[in-house]
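INTERNAL TRANSFER SHEET
From: sequence group
To: structure group
Subject: Sorbitol dehydrogenase

Please process the attached sequence and return the structure record in the designated field. Keep the field labels unchanged so the import script can parse them.
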Amino acid sequence: MTFDVKNKTVLVTGANRGIGKAILEEALRRGATKVYAAVRTLESADSLVAEHGDQVVAVRLDLDDHASITTAAETAKDVDVVVNNAGVLKVSTAIEKDAIETLQFEMNTNVYGLIRVAQAFAPILKANGGGAFAQLNSVASVKTFGNFATYCASKAASYSITQGLRESLREQGTHVVSVHPGPIQTDMGVAAGFGDIAASPVLVAKAIFDAIAEGRFHCWTDPMAQQIGAAYQSFAENVVEADMQESLS
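Return from structure group:
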């Protein structure tokens, strides 16, 4: 299943900075006619609207606020591609005193937020012919790092939900992409201490639309991610992407 973003309408959560901003700009570069910048505060998208004019429409969307997601979906009824980029990260091991509270915070945005977005926009994508839904997961979805244990757990869960969406949305013609960046040069990456090993957000944006165009489910976006993806490839192809319904019946 392939999909060309040219002349289509795209929605990007967390579009005001970092990876989200790069995704918005890449969508426009590839010929999207409109991009909804879905942000927690509308003012944070002012510079994007000023730069791109009516090609960018700011809508309020907070992954922690279910009502804001349903309202955004009512506004963006013409959307063909949804990229759920927004997420949160806290540095926490599994044995810190507030680890459970940290995990609850990350799960609410990174997992429950994903489900809320999928529930709100899947019917719209179906009505508009299927389109594509891309979820920003992480290399942390398949590899846990001790200092980021709770974040990794939330991203493993979001990856699991994304696999479920791939199957659930297939019948309506929606192509689902699971995006797995490594450390990226963003405010979140700086706060997490990734420093010099972080890659450009532009790599992520380009890889997402390449995966959509080529009909791929897994999207490993940068050198570190591609190294992990290469090691993971056999399991991905033979288990995650395989049709195992007959063997389970």
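Handover comment: Residues 9-241 form a domain with the Rossmann fold fold (CATH 3.40.50.720). The mean pLDDT is 93.
Transfer complete.
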